[in-house]
Design a protein that fits this description.
Blueprint: H1 6-15, E1 21-23, H2 26-34, E2 40-42, E3 59-65, H3 74-81, E4 85-96, H4 101-108, H5 130-139, E5 143-150, H6 167-170, E6 173-179
Parallel strand pairs: 1-2, 3-4
Antiparallel strand pairs: 4-6, 5-6
Length: 181
């Protein structure tokens, strides 16, 4: 979800976007609204019956920035938001890459330790590689436009050039852009 709206505020200020947000936290949504979000929606995407029928807008872009890995059924959520995209709309998904080299090394040593944040965040319900992330979108009928492996934190930013060699090994995260048609 959008939580307190940090990413949306950057889009509003830097790209002059009109931004709506969805989250499970009413407190986070209040902050997002006060920071310039047009509309906010209180939604539990892990509920047995997900209700997004209060969303009447159509969007050029729907962004799931490190969200899908926290969901019980990300396929269902991707299906539910599909009608909210305009005809040439795009969905943008950012996911942590569980196949990142350090994770592979630790697994070889028999270690799979959950952490407070990162690819093995203890709140993650699903884990994705670049291939399984692509397949997730394809399974629910989206058409892939672009896949970008990347690193954004600390020394990892300096490894981005290695993504051309072996993206599944050297990328900490990846971004998928897809259309609904």
């Amino acid at each position: 979800g959008c939580w307190t709206g940090n990413l949306g505020v950057a889009l509003i200020e830097e790209k002059k976007c009109v931004v709506d947000g969805m989250d499970i936290s009413s407190e986070g949504l209040k902050q997002a609204k006060s920071r310039g979000y047009r509309n906010t929606y209180l939604v539990n995407l892990n509920a047995e019956k997900i209700k997004i029928d209060s969303v009447v807008e159509k969007y050029d872009f729907i962004l799931f920035a490190d969200v899908l890995e926290h969901l019980i059924n990300p396929e269902l959520v991707l299906e539910l938001v599909r009608p909210l995209l305009r005809p040439k709309g795009r969905i943008i998904v950012s996911l942590p890459n569980v196949a990142f080299g350090l994770n592979r090394f630790n697994l070889l040593l028999g270690r799979w330790n959950y952490t407070e944040f990162g690819t093995l965040d203890k709140t993650h319900l699903k884990f994705f590689t670049i291939t399984t992330g692509k397949n997730l979108l394809l399974r629910v009928g989206y058409k892939l436009i672009k896949v970008t492996p990347y690193n954004q934190f600390g020394f990892l930013r300096h490894l981005n050039f290695l993504n051309k060699i072996c993206p599944g090994f050297f990328s900490y995260q990846f971004m998928l852009v897809a259309s609904k048609d």
